[in-house]
Amino acid sequence: MIVLGLSSGTSVDAIDAAAADLTLGDDGVLRMRPRGHTEYAWPRALRERILKALPPAAVDVAEVAQLDTLIGQELGRAGRRAIDDVAGGDVDLVASHGQTIYHWVVGARARGTLQLGNAAWVAEHVKRPVISDFRVADVAAGGHGAPLVSVLDALWLGREDTGADGAGTGLTAALNIGGIANVSLVGRVDDPVTGWDTGPGNCLLDVAVAALTDGRLAYDRDGELAAQGTVDPVALAALLDDPYFAAPAPKSTGRELFDTTYTARRLASVRPGLTGPDLVATLTELTAVSVADALAGRDVRRVVASGGGARNPVLLDRLRAALAERVPHACDVVTSEALGLPVDAKEAYLFALLGFLSAHGLPGTAAGEHRRRATGARRAVVLGSLTPPTPLPWPAASGPVRRLALANTPHGLHPGPRTQGPLPDPTKGTSR
Fold first, then answer.
1. Residue 13 known to bind ligand
2. 131: which strand partners?
3. Global pTM?
4. 9 is in an annotated binding site
5. Burial of 82 (0-12, 13-18, 19+ CB in 10 A)
6. 290: which DSSP letter?
7. Of 423 and 227, which is predicted with more confidence?
8. Binding site annotation covers 14?
9. Which of 247, 371, 357, 385 is nearest to 24 (CA)?
10. What HAMAP family would the database entry show (predicted)?
């Protein structure tokens, strides 16, 4: 089955599209051959409306209804183009995550989550079945609905007992640094997986950089501003004092907490005048340290980074330094691209995988600890809703999936064509 995954993160900078040919063998190995990926920039006016609707903004029901339609139409147009651009017109199913507008968390529990982009509009454009609304079923089962990427990480990075895949012993931490950073801890095949949001990834950095440059820059390209600054220890301590960082996993967060006013509010009483490269350096350190703190004391031997933050060398260097102080063993930091999945397209390939699993009646979350799922859900559930609501022409799977094997082309992953116009901001948000 060839599945096209569509995803847009909290930065709302682009619609990511990735096509994969997936085949499940009798041995429980799901073989995924990436067909290619690309990006389509959101129309400027629609992007501005989406950003204005994100927390802490208050919007009326009319705006929500209109955005649901407009986002669905744009996702449909992107999907229609991507079917030709990256899959040569050959796609069986489209998996559309939509655009997260609100993730409702109260204390340690997720109460609900809202992704806009009505699937009927997507299906009308792509002329294929569409699976969407992936998170709600997990939340209804007691989970956080996030991070959903743990199922990909578990199937892809789980090691055999021999360590023959090069991971050795210990754990692999699959880290996505988008608007929000999340991590999955993966050990041996079939071992329980832990996954949670560690805190801000690029979201606070992007807000600071845009404000400092009067909107000329949307992100800190190559960490250039951070490299010019000095970390303020007082400000960093005030930021790290947020109770979210000390809360146990599984947990999830988003712009509902780390919104555009967050940094100013946290620093108002300690460093109200902090600005310029020093502020950027401090926020970069916050991301690195909060991730490293989340992994402190764990037997992590390898971190596999993806997302826009994986292209920030200063952030990765600060992460390496923070990990060296907190984990008990030497820990390599590599990118997902080094292992076969592009850092900018991993989320879109995730939704292609989730679409395949849902179409075959398979759960879309990894097994976690204490008889729960990695998201905290009480039980495994099949994720998503089908549009139109007719039976798919594929039978349910006869057995579980144990491993995911990437079957890349001899020349590696085809990057796919890039659309014309301004390049999307590489510091993508998570698909929230």
1. yes
2. 95, 386
3. 0.90
4. yes
5. buried
6. H
7. 227
8. yes
9. 357
10. AnhMurNAc_kinase
- 387 is an annotated ligand-binding site residue: no
pLDDT confidence bin for 164, thresholds 50/70/90: very low
Residues of the chain with CATH 3.30.420.40: 2-157+345-387, 171-328
pLDDT tens digit string along 388-422? 998 877 888 888 899 999 986 433 344 444 443 33
Burial of 116 (0-12, 13-18, 19+ CB in 10 A): buried
> Residue 247, annotated ligand binder?
no
Question: Which one is the CATH code of 2-157+345-387: 3.40.50.920, 3.30.70.330, 3.30.2130.30, 3.30.420.40?
Answer: 3.30.420.40
For the packed helices 276-295 and 233-240, what is the interaxial angle rounded to 10 degrees?
Answer: 50
Beta strands in 252-408 (DSSP E): 300-306, 332-335, 385-387, 403-406
Residue 195 annotated as lining a ligand binding site: no
pLDDT tens-digit series, residues 20-79 = 999 999 999 999 999 999 999 999 999 999 999 999 898 999 999 999 999 999 999 999
Closest CA to 208 of 271, 149, 145, 155: 271
**CATH says 171-328 is which class?**
alpha beta
Residue 74: both structure tokens together: 């744009």
Angle at 319 between CA 269 and CA 100, to 5 degrees: 70
Task: Give the torsion through C-alpha atoms of 164, 166, 168, 171, to 10 deg.
Answer: -120
336 assigned to a ligand binding site: no
The answer to whether 10 is annotated as binding is yes
H-assigned helices in 146-202:
150-157
